[in-house]
Amino acid sequence: MDDRSNTIAGWVLAGGIVALGLSIVTGMYFKAEAPEKEGFAVVVEDAAAAGGAAAVPIATLLATADIAKGEAVFKKCAACHTIAQGGANGIGPNLWASMGKAHGHVAGFAYSDALKSIPGNWDWEGMDKWLANPKKYAPGTKMTFAGLGNPEERANLILYLNAQGSNLPLPTPPAAEAPAADAAVDAATGEAGAAPATDAAAAPAK
Known about the structure:
This protein is 46% helix and 0% strand. With 206 residues, the protein is mainly α. Helix 3 (67-74) packs across helix 7.
């Protein structure tokens, strides 16, 4: 019985040694080595940084904005602001005739230093940026509103704000590019330049 046990143990031990040897040899043969040259790195670019669609100027959006829609958008602001002439301040200041006025112009309202420190007045572009992202426009502002991400919605609201006591003239939209017209001019110029050469070729030799 002892001989048989010893024999079995011997075979088990031998099998283990063979398996270990095969493992070492296989590992040496199939050893993975790092490539001399790394593969291409995949770079994920931000859509805006990669040259996405250019933002439409606020002056262009205001040309087709709708005051009635802007009044509807103002309901999002009514929890903190009044806009009637002589209206009381709430969590935010009264916004009557605010367009064209200085930042922090309402007497008696405790504006944040962040907003009061911004130079200039509430112009079209400034109001558009403020409504898009107040915390970016005035870092440190007390206003907790996250902003309006829709440019058309902002234009409608700004048009409504302007109609409430400010009545500033709308900005002139930037001139639209006319590539087709430029191409036509270039084509005409090219034909005109080629005409003398044709005439010269048709003229009789002297």
